[in-house]
Amino acid sequence: MKSTDQDLVGNGLSRRTVLASVAAAGVTSCGGGQMTRAEQPEKTELEIANEKLVNNFCRDWALRDIEALRPYLAEDLLYQIAPGQPLIKSRDQFEKQMGDWLKSLASVHWDILRSHVIGPVVINERIDHFNAPEDGKGPSMRFQIVGHFFIEDGVIKVWKDWPIPGAEQFIG
């Protein structure tokens, strides 16, 4: 039988009173509206493995070898270099788009400033350094970004980088 306001009024309560009481109890149970910092749970084995995978992937960009990056990426990878940029929809497309460019650079280094992992998601703050060859064919670049990685079956399935508002980005 469906409860109505009339049913609740018979008990001295209205639906509005019940809902307001439930909402107030929820806010109170969450610290009265103030955020509290809970103790960090221990990372699971899977989370440790996912974070290590992403850290090693970031480290191996320094090799400037697209074949070295291949094992980290799912065949059906979805990658977006920055908001508004076209979506790369496969590992093969990633290799074709990034391979020659990566090889042409004098050096690459990614500094991971901080990293967080929850289940299959790894988020890191990085400064990515791409140093152009001395022949002047292309600019050197430095970007401070947030990387978002979704790991599935031990490989990066989805990867998107976000620029940090107000951070100094360099191309030149």
String of helices and strands = HHHHEHEEEEE
Mean pLDDT: 86
CATH overall fold name of the largest domain: Nuclear Transport Factor 2, Chain: A
Helical content stands at 25-40%
Q: Radius of gyration in whole Å, from Cα?
A: 24 Å
What is the highest CATH level, the class of the largest domain? Alpha Beta
* Integer count of domains: 2
* 3D shape: globular
Uncertain parts: 1-9
CATH architecture of the largest domain: Roll
The portion of residues forming beta strands comes to 25-35%
**Number of E-state strands:** 6
Q: Which class of secondary structure composition applies to the elements? A: alpha+beta
Task: Tell me what the structure shows.
This protein is α+β, with helices and mostly antiparallel strands. The chain has 2 domains: 1-38, no CATH class; 45-171, Nuclear Transport Factor 2, Chain: A (Roll). 32% of the residues lie in helices and 31% in strands. It has 5 helices and 6 strands. The chain has helices spanning 5-10, 15-29, 45-60, 66-69, 91-104, and strands at residues 73-80, 107-118, 121-131, 141-152, 155-163, 170-171. Strands 1, 2, 3, 4, 5 and 6 form a 6-stranded mixed β-sheet that branches. It is globular, with a radius of gyration of 24 Å. The model is unreliable at 1-9 (pLDDT under 50).
